[in-house]
Every structure is written in structure tokens, then in C-alpha cells.
Amino acid sequence: MRKRFLTQLSLVSIITCCCLFGALYTADCQAFQQNRQPVIYLLAGGNFHLTEECADLLIQYLQGKTRYPVKKTMVRYDLTRLDELNAQGLILITQGGVLSDAELQSLQAFVRSGKGVVGIHGATDSFDDAGEVEAYTDLIGGWFQSHPPRGEFPVTVKNTSHPITREMKNFRVRYDERYVMKLADGLDVLLTVDVDGKEIPNTWTKDYGQGRVFYTGLGHDRTTFRNATFLSMVVRGIKWAIEDPAQ
Ligand SMILES: [Zn+2]
């Protein structure tokens, strides 16, 4: 009787263990699948800007408007992990820092393979603490040189046939910076600003390999990240560069 009880106990133990292992295995698989869910990776950080607050304002606005969830990180040096993170695209709200050779190559390969980058404001003043990285300038489309005093200014819609700007009219931003930049080749300029009587490209798209880049020079601080015209343009930029690259 005792032996039979032990046998029954052993059977119950084995079944319990199998169930528990199965549950753990399932949970582990779910966790893995969650990690493998496609995401838009938002990298924020740098000096002179409220990058985290601006990133949070953008993420709040993007709720329900993007196909993939937007995952924010303030950790700067993750650009070799874009495939591992299953990133469908990259949003840069950054300034300064450096790129390792491995990160630069990873970023180039990422976009060339058909993924997208959306750069905002300081994205053209990023990864340049050791000087301009020309290959990065070529990818994002420009390299920051200077800006006149910040404040309110008009923005001109230069391209009225592009999906990002065709519904837009000229508008004003209340408090921002007009970046003057060294420009890369191959830009499709969407918006311009006036600096001392010169028409300066401010917002553009660029094809890069199989992938796409959308950049806007607007977005110095939270004021612009509360501007509906700017925010809706960034949504269309995300759709064009990241979500519908074959559009
Ligand atoms: Zn700025």
C-alpha cells in the first residue's frame, strides 16, 4: 500500500513537474516573442536640449498612430543591436556623442537593408563630438553648422507633392532654432526657413540604399513638440520612412 502510494506520489510529482516546466517554457516563449515584436526604436539624449521630455511628448502623441510600438531608450550606444531588437525603424532625438565604427556600419547596413530613420533637430548635430562623421552626414542628410538666435519664425512648405507635406500650408513655430547645415547630396527638400534673406533647407527626405530617411530641423524644445502641425508631420514622416518604405 505504501509502495503504491509512493508510486502515485511519484506520478503526481512527474506530472506536476511537467506542467510547471511547460508553464515556464510557455512563459519564456511568450517573453521571447514579446522581445521579438517589431518596434520603432527611439534614441534620445545629448546636451542643450530637453531630449527626454521631448521624446515623451512625441511618444504620447504617437499613441495609436503608428503600426509598431515606439520604444524609447536614453542609453546611447545601442546601435549595433538594431536587428537584435527587431527594430523596424529608428527615431533620433539626439545631440552630440560619438559613433563607434561598428555602430556606424550597423546603422548604414540597417537603412540600406530597407529600414527607416527619422531624425529630429539635433540629429544633424549628433555623434560629432570628435568631429564630423561624413558617412553619418551622408545618411542623415546634413551636419549642423550654426543657428541665429532662437525664437518665433515662419516655415515655408517647399514641396507640395510629397506625401509628408502635400496637405501642409506655410506655418509658424513659436520658439525654435533655424539650423544652418552643411548639406549632403540627394535631398528632397520639403520645408525651408529664412536666415538673413537666404532660403535654408530645414526638412527633407533622402533615399539611402533600400531604406529611407526623413529629417526635420525643427524641434529644439517642448514648444514645438506641442505644435500640432509639427507633430502630424512627424507622424507622416514615420509612415513614409519607416512603415511604408515601398509606398
Ligand atoms: Zn537646439
Please describe what this structure looks like.
By secondary structure, the chain is α/β, with parallel strands linked by helices. It folds into 2 domains: 1-36; 38-243, Class I glutamine amidotransferase (GATase) domain (Rossmann fold, 3-Layer(aba) Sandwich), CATH 3.40.50. It is built from 5 helices and 11 strands; from the N terminus they run αβαββαβαβββββββα. It has a 9-stranded mixed beta sheet. A two-stranded antiparallel ribbon has the order 5-8. β10 (198-208) and β11 (211-216) form a beta hairpin. It is globular and about 45 Å long. The chain starts with a helix and ends with a helix. Residues 1-34 have low confidence and may be disordered.
Task: Write a brief caption for the model.
The protein is α/β, with parallel strands linked by helices. The chain has 2 domains: 1-36; 38-243, Class I glutamine amidotransferase (GATase) domain (Rossmann fold), CATH 3.40.50.880. Helices cover 33% and strands 29% of the residues.
- Give a count of the beta strands, DSSP E runs of length 2 or more: 11
Mean pLDDT: 87
Helix content: 25-40%
CATH superfamily of the largest domain: Class I glutamine amidotransferase (GATase) domain
pLDDT < 50 runs, ≥5 residues: 1-34
Number of domains: 2
What form results from the Cα inertia axes?
globular
> How large a portion of the residues is in β-strands, by DSSP E?
25-35%
CATH topology of the largest domain: Rossmann fold
Proper CATH architecture of the largest domain: 3-Layer(aba) Sandwich
Measured on Cα atoms, how large is the radius of gyration?
23 Å
Number of helices: 5
